[in-house]
Design brief:
InterPro entries: ABC_transporter_permease, MetI-like, MetI-like_sf. With 308 residues, the chain is mostly helical. It has 16 helices and two strands. Strand 1 and strand 2 form a beta hairpin. Helix 4 runs antiparallel to helix 13 (220-235).
């Protein structure tokens, strides 16, 4: 008498398992093929090119470790790595608190929030080139804002000093990309269960304590994701440096990506440029993995209901 219900229960269990199981690897094949064709294949070709000498004409000639040896003996290259790390670190320090606070605020029910948020997110819709040209015009020492407020900017040539140029790059990057990270925090904040805030309010916690003890811990995954995006974006930035400073003054803002451009497309040394590009990929990947490991992000379990 008990065999029929047991069989039915097993059938329902198998159906439920099929409905909630993760999709098979077949579903990932189009994405894997796209990634392999447009990411892995070019990366392998760049790695091969880094061991050659090629000016862009004729056929590449095998050069062994010559490009790599020169790379680590080049003081400009070592300085460019330091500048890339510096700009990335400053970007994280500036953008993280700004985007976190704005994202949490934008997730609330304030009056006029939608309009203000829409205006704030406008820079995110512009290309890096457009943003850089805009700020280049605004910071023109002869006709821009600094020329009209010399009491604040001195001679007005902010891009003429190392400190000023680095500061401009950090501000421009924050102006454009803070909205992106604010969107991440806005979505993550809206996903926090309201019952946590209700329980905190019952315990007598005000807005500040709720933010510190409820909101921030719940945004841990979002913070790690945002920081990784900032690190990868900061280490590989190029457009803004090309348009705003062109690596100057001197080589004070010659970051690694821009130095790669100078070597390959100005100096016609594509082997050296490929070596710099490959090194940049390795550094960006290593830093991202360190962030993931230190944050414990790789050990966090998924929270999506219905998936096992």
């Amino acid at each position: 008498m008990t065999s029929a219900p047991t069989t039915a229960a097993r059938a329902r269990g198998r159906a439920t398992a099929r409905g909630t199981a993760r999709p098979g690897v077949v579903w990932a094949l189009p994405a894997l093929a796209f990634f392999g064709l447009f990411a892995l294949v070019p990366l392998v070709l760049v790695a091969v090119l880094s061991f050659t000498s090629w000016s862009g004409l004729g056929s590449p000639a095998f050069a062994g470790l010559t490009n790599w040896t020169k790379l680590f003996q080049d003081p400009v290259m070592l300085q460019s790595l330091w500048l890339s790390v510096l700009l990335t670190g400053l970007g994280v320090l500036v953008q993280t608190p700004l985007s976190l606070l704005i994202g949490v605020w934008a997730a609330g029910p304030q009056r006029g929030r939608a309009v203000l948020a829409a205006v704030f997110f406008v820079p995110l819709l512009l290309s890096v080139t457009a943003v850089s040209v805009l700020w280049r015009a605004l910071l023109d020492p002869n006709f821009g804002v600094p020329a009209q407020a010399r009491w604040l900017f001195g001679d007005g040539n902010l891009l003429g000093s190392r400190t000023g140029a680095i500061g401009v790059l950090v501000v421009v990057s924050a102006w454009q990309y803070t909205p992106l990270h604010s969107l991440i925090y806005q979505g993550a904040t809206r996903a926090i269960p309201k019952v946590l805030y209700q329980a905190a309010a019952v315990d007598g916690a005000g807005r500040v304590r709720q933010f510190l003890h409820v909101t921030l811990p719940q945004l841990r995954n979002a913070v790690v994701t945002s920081v990784i995006l900032m690190v990868v974006g900061g280490l590989t930035t190029f457009d803004s440096v090309l348009i705003l400073t062109q690596g100057g003054p001197g080589s004070d803002t010659t970051i690694t990506a821009y130095y790669m451009y100078e070597k390959a497309f100005k100096g016609f040394d594509y082997g050296a440029g490929a070596a710099i590009a490959l090194l940049l990929v390795v550094v960006a990947t290593a830093v991202s993995l360190v962030v993931v490991r230190l944050s414990g992000y790789d050990r966090m379990a998924g929270t999506q209901e219905g998936l096992s």
